[in-house]
UniProtKB/TrEMBL annotation:
Family under the similarity heading: Belongs to the carbohydrate kinase PfkB family.
Gene source species: Kolteria novifilia
SUPFAM superfamilies per the UniProt record, alphabetical: Ribokinase-like (SSF53613)
Keyword Amino-acid biosynthesis belongs to the record: no
Highest taxon listed in the record's lineage: Bacteria
PANTHER family: 1-PHOSPHOFRUCTOKINASE-RELATED, ATP-DEPENDENT 6-PHOSPHOFRUCTOKINASE ISOZYME 2
Official protein name in the record: Tagatose-6-phosphate kinase
Record carries keyword ATP-binding: yes
Name of encoding gene: lacC
GO biological process, one term: carbohydrate metabolic process
Enzyme Commission identifier(s): 2.7.1.144
Molecular function terms, GO-annotated: ATP binding; tagatose-6-phosphate kinase activity
Carbohydrate kinase PfkB domain: residues covered: 22-279
UniProt entry keywords in alphabetical sequence: ATP-binding, Kinase, Nucleotide-binding, Transferase
Amino acid sequence: MILAAGLTPAWQQILCLDDLELGEVNRASKATWCASGKVINVGIGAHHLDGNVKVLALVGSWSGDALAEELTALGIPTHLIWTDVPTRVCTTLIEQSGPRITELVENARPIENEAITQFVEAYAKEQEGAKAVVLSGSLPPGAPKTIYRDLIAKTSAPVVLDARGPELKEALSTRPFVVKPNKQELEATVGRPLETENELVAAMRELVEQGPEWVVITQGGKSVYAASRDRVFTCTPPKVAVVNAIACGDCFAAGLACAIGRGRTMEQSIPFAVAAAAENARMLLPGRLERRRVDILAETIAISPFSP
């Protein structure tokens, strides 16, 4: 079982427009709602890739009800902690003429301490049967910055951590198996711009020295880098017709966890994860992957050692 755990899911609205004109009335030709947010995207992606996943998340109000109903309809087991705070609503604007994608993100609201405590207690139980765990997403205001560190310390399975900033820094000493920020998140964590490949890899090695076995960096459609203490390799994602790029990084994390949970090496896992991210870009709704296509894409992706 893959456990996807996070504290800031979302109920997502996707609007398709011809063109987005700022300061004007914009009419959508298509509107779709779906369960989303990083933890949910990981769970849905892993469900389509592996078929054996459980989602642990905080939810609330009507938007939490809608999210829970969709996960049930998809057949995804959940452990949902209900709070007094409505699940946030985020909006994706897709311009058909581009396509250009704009994301409107509602920041998470503060969560009552009791719900955080319930989440931590539930995690300690749910991680026991996991072959791999993905911890992902920002933290709600007031949640301790050490929460990912504390959760990883309780975890016996390999952990893929998709976080940034203080919560990522706090967790490094617990030696997660993989930390997976994107390039912008890595820059935020090390506190400086990373303008060249050598600067990027140097920053990855800084993180590796602080504890994790692997640091993996994604950059949208650009090269992916993976670094451990003795290896650095890279690969290039395949070209696909992009419909909606939102959640590609989450599907990467899902693919990585599924491969790791099946006992694959990192050299075998990265192409599968890259293929999952590429397949997600073809889809309107995040995480709704076609496993057969992911397997085919993965066979076309080669990794190579990084040369400074």
